[in-house]
Design a protein that fits this description.
single chain; alpha+beta
Length: 160
């Protein structure tokens, strides 16, 4: 089961554009006030408008734009390099999100050893917006990954 397709890239691009547009729209009234005050030579109102516009840009950038940019960068990086497949028993899927490189993930632990020794556990990161069926726990799976980012997952035939 492939976790990403073209719609994910399109959705990410759309989210970036919407975040930038919202930032500009929220900043516009304050910037217009600053421009009007500059034209009318009202120094304190011009300064206040500039400060307010800057504060809105900084706030909205941290709140909306930066996460959208980081998620888009994650998608680009994860899909533009070498991939590998790992076969193992799905030991557990984390419940709490892990924040790494500006994106939320869930930990996915698979065990590549047939005797399920703890030394065989490998940690992968699954996008918090995606999911692996819980029925796959303790069964063999094949994870396709770039680094430790899961790109695809499927159930495997039982090992002999």
């Amino acid at each position: 089961m492939k976790l990403y397709d073209q719609t994910d890239f399109d959705k990410s691009r759309k989210e970036k554009k919407e975040a930038l547009l919202r930032t500009l729209l929220f900043m516009l009234p304050f910037f217009a006030c600053a421009v009007a005050a500059f034209v009318l030579r009202i120094e304190w109102l011009c300064a206040l408008g500039c400060f307010a516009a800057g504060a809105v840009v900084i706030f909205m950038y941290d709140l909306l734009v930066k996460p959208a940019l980081r998620y888009s960068a994650y998608l680009a990086e994860a899909h533009s390099g070498l991939t590998r497949q790992t076969l193992g028993a799905l030991a557990r899927i984390g419940c709490d999100p892990v924040y790494q490189d500006g994106v939320n993930f869930y930990e996915v632990i698979i065990n590549i050893y047939e005797d399920l020794d703890e030394e065989g556990e490998r940690r992968f990161l699954l996008d918090a917006k995606k999911e692996i069926p819980a029925e796959w726990l303790n069964s063999d799976v094949v994870l396709t990954s770039h680094g430790n980012y899961v790109l695809a997952a499927c159930q495997a035939e039982a090992r002999a």
